[in-house]
Specification:
Layout: E1 3-4, H1 19-28, E2 33-39, H2 60-73, E3 79-86, H3 93-100, E4 107-110, H4 124-127, H5 132-147, E5 153-154, H6 166-182, E6 187-190, H7 191-195, H8 203-211, E7 215-219, H9 231-244, E8 247-248
Parallel strand pairs: 1-2, 2-3, 3-4, 4-5, 6-7, 7-8
Helix pairs in contact: 5-6, 6-8
Length: 254
Amino acid sequence: MLHNYHTHTTRCNHASGKDHEYVEQAIAGGLKTLGFSDHAPYLFPDGQYPSTHRMRVDELFEYAESVRSLAKEYQKDIRILCGFELEYYPDYHAEEKAFLEQVKPDYLILGQHFVGNEYSFIPSSRALAGNDLGLIAYVSQAIAGLATGDFLYLAHPDLAGYSFSPETVEREYRRLCRAAKKFGVPLEINLLGLRGNRHYPSKTFFRIAAEEENEIVLGADAHDPFDVCDFESEAKALKMVKSLGLKLLEKLDV
């Protein structure tokens, strides 16, 4: 993998390492592009939302300045991009996008962790288990996000899991794959899921993606500098790509 667009920083409160350490590991591993895409600060009606899984609103400019400073410092060795991973919340998306536009991000990744919005603190991957209506709602919201045209790709598209009826899994994930293809949005094979032996990425989902001829991208989802070039997980992902006949994109247009 020469181009990784899914990299976090300590500002999200669940990652480790200095910003420059991610860059240096990327260079040492031979990457040509390192895209930072930390969890975006989110504007909610009551102002400073006390999130434990995303950067604070007042960290927006410092984050962008840090990434762009590193891009200049290491420009002879690697291309560094400044992006965000962002949930799609219909009621707040327009204002949120305008807020982030203050730092002119290079791209946004859709990382849908919640249905509705996160005030309820109900992660899609847990609270939806066993409830078919939950998966339907999750897929519908993700598709609405894709339809905006604001996102470079869909991260961990199978995050919601498989604790649903087989019929619903087949129908809803196929609906998501077809929408992604319609809107020209690649789907991510998430290396964090492989590193952590999580329920994703799943051959069930990516078998459907192969049948629908979706474009696929690998994402390190790095939360530690050593995750940036995770060759073991990358090898597993490439094995999945080959076995299923997936259409892998090495580099994205950003």
